[in-house]
Amino acid sequence: MNSLYGLGKMILMFGLFMVITGGVLMLAGKFTGLGRLPGDIFIQRGNFTFYFPIVTMLVLSLVLTLLLNFIFRR
């Protein structure tokens, strides 16, 4: 029974982390233009829309890598 408690706690923490991360990304998109960088692929034809934020993903990956390396290398 104790292992289920730990698993439940871990799932709740992951969910909370995802909600916070989603909120930060939504706010960052409004204030910084993140998500509409040059190089992001956006195709709109009729009722079809395709959006692939390749440059945004690369920038976020770089920033998060640097941040996590700074935090965990201490």
From TrEMBL:
The keyword Transmembrane applies. The chain crosses the membrane at residues 7-28, 48-72. Pfam families: DUF2905. Keywords: Membrane, Transmembrane, Transmembrane helix. PANTHER family: BSR5223 PROTEIN. This is DUF2905 domain-containing protein. The lineage of its organism: Bacteria, Bacillati, Bacillota, Clostridia, Eubacteriales.
